[in-house]
Amino acid sequence: MGLFDGYNVSTSGMSAQRTRINVVSANIANAQTTHTQDGGPYKKQNVVFEELLLNNMKNVTDKSHQISNEQNLAVRGVGVQSIVNSKDDPVMRFEPEHPDANDEGYVAYPNINPVVEMVDLIEAMRSYEANVAAFTTHKTIDTKTLEILKA
User: Fold this and answer.
1) Which of 12, 18, 39, 112 maximizes the CB count within 10 A of its CB?
2) 45-49, 55-59, 128-132, 144-148 — which is least confidently predicted?
3) Domain-wise residue ranges, the chain
4) What is the DSSP-derived secondary structure letter of residue 90?
């Protein structure tokens, strides 16, 4: 494990949670959007995370550079694998005067629950704050170590 690995894990978590915060914010902002460029209502989006492994030495053939499998699979952090659209059906509401109403007077609204989205947003913010705390703790430990070595 290198000196900066803890920082890298924390910053990757902060970056992933920032993406999640942006996506959830877009969901909240578009909860009432009935017409998009693709036609139809806005589709709720979800972030899919993936673990990032430090396996860049896997293909090295020089024996002096080979590392053990345990080191080869060291966790480097978390990343965003993809942002996927929800497959939920839209919510149909009877509003015959709405410009996006169908022939029967129903309007398709995104299937987005603002309460659920706010809980997701709070969870992402707490996770971001936890990564900031881990980063700060790692920095404090490194600072104290350097002070001990200096003395």
Assistant:
1) 112
2) 55-59
3) 5-31+45-85+112-150
4) P
Is residue 128 a contact partner of residue 21, using CB atoms and an 8 Å limit? yes
- Residue 34, pLDDT > 70, answer yes
Give backbone dihedrals phi and psi of 9, rounded to 5 degrees, phi first.
-65, -45
Is the per-residue pLDDT at 71 higher than 80?
no
Are the C-beta atoms of 90 and 111 separated by less than 8 Å? yes
CA pair distance 109, 117, nearest whole angstrom: 16
State how far Cα 67 lies from the chain centre: 31
The per-residue DSSP string of 10-78 comes to: HHHHHHHHHHHHHHHHHHHHTTT----TTSSSPPPEEEEEEEEEE-TTTT---GGG---HHHHTEEEEE
| Alpha-carbon distance values, 26 to 17, 33, 69, 118 (Å) | 14, 11, 41, 12
Min mean pLDDT across 28-32, 76-80, 82-86, 136-140 is at 76-80
Three-state DSSP state, 102: coil
In tens, the pLDDT along 79-120 reads: 999 999 999 999 999 999 999 999 999 999 999 999 999 999
